[in-house]
Amino acid sequence: MTKIERVPLMIPGATVKGTPLKVCNPYDGAILAEVATAGEVAIEQALVNATMVFSDRSNYLSVAQRIAILERVMVSLGNQAETLAYTATQEGGKPLIDSRIEMARCIDSLRICVDTLRNDVPADIPMALNTASADRLATISKEPIGVVMAVSAFNHPLNLIAHQIGPAIATGCPVIVKPARETPLSCARLVDIFHQAGLPKAWCQMVIPESIDLAEMLVTDSRVAFFSFIGSAKVGWYLRSQLAAGTRCALEHGGVAPVIVMADADLEQALAGLVKGAFYHAGQVCVSVQRIFVDHTIAEKLASELATAANKLQLGDPVDLQTEVGPLIRADEVARIDSWVQAAIAEGSQCLSGGRPRNNQCYAPTVLYRPASDSKVMTQEVFGPVVCVIPFSDVDDAISAANALPFAFQAAVYSQNQILAFDISQRLDASAVMINDHTAFRVDWMPFAGLKQSGLGVGGIPYTMDDMQINKMVVTYTPSLS
Asked: 284: closest CA among 336, 236, 238?
């Protein structure tokens, strides 16, 4: 019998535990670990710990100390990369080939934290420009904003955590992190590695609240200075409405990502990108390709070839290096996605591939042709391996349809006419538009921002670090300057 790992509370001084959380492999249901959860007493202890270390300026970690810790963490992550990628695959279901890439990004995300610290110099404020500002010198310094509360999602259990706790630690903020209940093991490993690298435990605590009510109590506590949320729009916008006065926040939700494919597009190039963008991690990505608007002269051809490629994708156990599409995170997600697909078919859409659940919580990569414009697969984020192909005759109509939803995140255009592609990119409601690439492209130093209902604020390591700091100006009156 395989021994079940037991992860203790990661809250210094807390001893009272809640009901343990069982962490299961989404592919075969095997129990991987039991993780201690926090009741009300433990949550209060976490807040006290974070507040106390932040209030004691004499024990702040210097920039040099923070850089040294981050650099030691990067070395440890490199040494344990394969084990960490395997754990992420086991608990989250992402194919191991992709978890290895995520592990490399996780290390690079922390490297970006260090690089940003070394180059993050605030601009001076000019004085002596008029009579009122004469004899004055203004300087700006950056300070940590305070206690950071980070709530993360399951789909990138290594790199998303790095995007939240890395900037907090880099900027000198104590951080309390709540990973997704499905994927807490990767977070626990990362937090433990930070502690081993010399970060005092109170500066980074992992908390799994025993209940939803306790999670809300933790997030909305007045001692939280900054709230970082990655997850569903429904939960994120609700929690924002409940935050204590003065708490700043950043929300990262999802989109219903549109792609416009013009008649002159390089179809081979487009297909490769669309297959990757639609079915990577079984479509469980916030900027996954979902709505493909295609010039009517090539729409059937593209849809057919996309379906053929989807049918060739290897489904199965995510630890198998041949697997390209693994399981969905929960069985209820399989049922939900299937209900949306079957409804679209009943409303008249052609199902060119997939359209059914498979064994072990997998769902067959699905291509739907001409779904109704008001169907759920066209108006809401599927967050599964489902993509819609819609022919158009007038690109203006395609752009209008792409912009018709209350969500806007990343979008894409395929065309060999760069002037036309750039013009379309300017007209799409999106924070980022990829030309001749899929919507899920991202590097960790670039801005990453949901618009409308898709989010609030700007992600990406340097931008998150900016959010977690305040600019303090000191103006000195010195008559001798004149």
From this structure: 336
